[in-house]
Each structure stands twice: as C-alpha cells, then as structure tokens.
C-alpha cells in the first residue's frame, strides 16, 4: 500500500512581501512619502529638512486631517458628505458669537470658563442637529447622499451668510487660541487633537459593531439589512459622527485664525475626497483604513510644503495633488490586474497538477478580500 509523503510547510515569505500583500496601499503611500522627502530634500535640504518646517507642517495638517476623517466615514458607508465645510463654519460661527458676547475684557476666569463650555456645547449641538437631519433624510427618505448633502451644504452656508452678512466674528479667549497655536511637549495642540480623533475613528471603524456595520452597508446595504442590522439608524449615526468631527475641525480652525466666517476652508472640500481616495478609501464603500488616510494626508502636506519652499504657485500644488492621486490609482489598478492574472494562472496550474496527482507548491499569491 503506497504511503503519502509527509506534507512540508511552505517556505516563509519575506516580511516585506507579506506586508505588500496585506496592505498594498499603505506600502505604496509610504514609498511615495520617501520619494517626496528625497526629492524635496535634495533641492532644499537646509530648509525642507529643518525642524521649523516639520513644526509648520504639524500646525497646518490637523484641520484638513479632521475634515478628511469626517469625509471618510460616509464614504465607507457608500455615501458622501458635501456639507462638511458648511457644517464646520456654522458651528464655528455659533461658538464665536457666544464667546464674543459673553466674554469681555474684565470678566472673571470662572465666567470665561462657563462661556467657553457653553460655546462648545452650542457648537456641538449645531453639528449634531445638522448631521441628524442629513442622516435621517438619507436613511429613511432614501434620497441619494450627494443630493441630500448638496442641499444641506447650500442651506447651512446660506444660513451662516444671512446671520453674519458674510462678515467675520473674531477675538477669542486664550484657552481657545491655545488649541490652534499652542504646543504641549513641543507638539502642536491641534496635532494632538488630530491624533486623538484618528485613534478614536480607527478603533470605532475596526473594533466596534458600528464600524463593522458601516463597512457591511458600504459593501452591500440590502444584504446587511436582511441580516438584521438596523441600516437606517446606522446611516443616521454615520452622518452624525461625520458632523461631530466637523465640530472638532471648527474648533481648530477658529483657534488658528482667531476668527470665524461662512466662507473659510471652502477649498478643502475636494481635497478631503482626494485624500480619502488616495488613502485607499473605496469610493463605492466598504473598504478603507484610517492609516492609509493618514499617510495620504502626510504625503499631500509634504508636496504642498515642498513646492511652497521651492517658490511654486499653490495652483500648481493642487495640480500635483491631482496627478498624485491619478498615479496612485493607476498603480493600484495595475497591481490588481497583475495579481489577478497570477492568481488565475496559479489556480489553472494547480488544477492541472491535481489532475495528474501532483500537489502544487504554495506560492503565497492570494485573492484580495
């Protein structure tokens, strides 16, 4: 009676190859960051590689980063939130109005603290209401998120302009200004706030039932609903959480500028979508990681700072951002096609080998899930 040969374990693959298979977007973005650092460092090493430049980038990135997180969550549900900038500006105006009316030069620290707490609560409530209304319309009236958030954006911005006549409200207490311009242990307070938001969103999207449900809805909403998940209320909370992140971004923006206005940061809207897609967030929903989004923000900030130091126009920087996203998408598509071809070829060879009684050797090519 023939005996079967003992199965030998497949050879261990290098850690780099395993990482490329598990997180190809992260590896690609890390490579692009290294290329960008080497490129700009070779042209302006004394300025680009200085501690002052690093500190400047750390001050500039948080507000865009928090807004990108606010865009990421609806994208992963298969939707979109075009009202993030309008929500942030209206929340900032509400907080600014309360702060400037309740805090005078001679008020006590206790009164200042109470006014700051009231202003933050009012801004929080404003963002919550906007997100709840938006989410309810998307979830229960079944209107497409683009149309709903476009209407929300227009209505909220119109309300903000009407209430302020398009003007600026400024002059905030030092505790607010510290969040946008202060530092703790050499790290900008706004960067610490961004990192906290990043960690919270990462944990929420990867390790909570809410995050799993959002991914399932983005992959197949109908199947998720039939499996017993309350998709309607999950979608409501998707837009509520997105709006609350806009409130955090509003605090950072008003702290940095020492003012609030209905038209601030309007150019950030498309950049947040660019950062999310560049970071591997599937615009059709279901897939994406916070780490990829964070790396894409770092890459965009390096490109912006580098071209600024070289004296290029900001408009050229935006063009380079778009070209970078197209390049990243092209690399991802080519990688997927090559992986699929190799996987199908390996499957065909395995079936042929089994038909003649030969056990094929494991190569480690896996289908992306």
The end-to-end span amounts to 42 Å
Radius of gyration equals 24 Å
Strand content: under 5%
Number of helices: 15
In short:
The chain has 369 residues and is an all-alpha fold. The chain has helices at residues 15-22, 24-43, 45-48, 51-76, 84-102, 109-140, 145-164, 174-181, 189-207, 209-219, 221-226, 231-257, 268-278, 290-309, 314-355; strands spanning 168-170, 183-184, 187-188, 259-261. It is built from 15 helices and 4 strands.
Defining traits:
single chain, 369 residues, mainly alpha, two-stranded antiparallel ribbon, 15 helices, 3% strand, globular
Characterization of this structure:
- The chain has 369 residues and is mostly helical.
- 74% of the residues lie in helices and 3% in strands.
- It is built from 15 helices and 4 strands.
- The chain has helices at 15-22, 24-43, 45-48, 51-76, 84-102, 109-140, 145-164, 174-181, 189-207, 209-219, 221-226, 231-257, 268-278, 290-309, 314-355, and strands spanning 168-170, 183-184, 187-188, 259-261.
- The strands form 2 sheets. The chain has a two-stranded antiparallel ribbon with strand order 1-4. A two-stranded antiparallel ribbon has the order 2-3.
- Strand 2 (183-184) and strand 3 (187-188) form a beta hairpin.
- Helix 4 (51-76) packs across helix 13, helix 5 (84-102) runs antiparallel to helix 6 and helix 14 runs antiparallel to helix 15.
- The longest helix has 42 residues, at 314-355.
- The chain is globular and about 90 Å long.
- The two termini are 42 Å apart.
- Mean pLDDT is 84; it is low at 1-6 and 361-369.
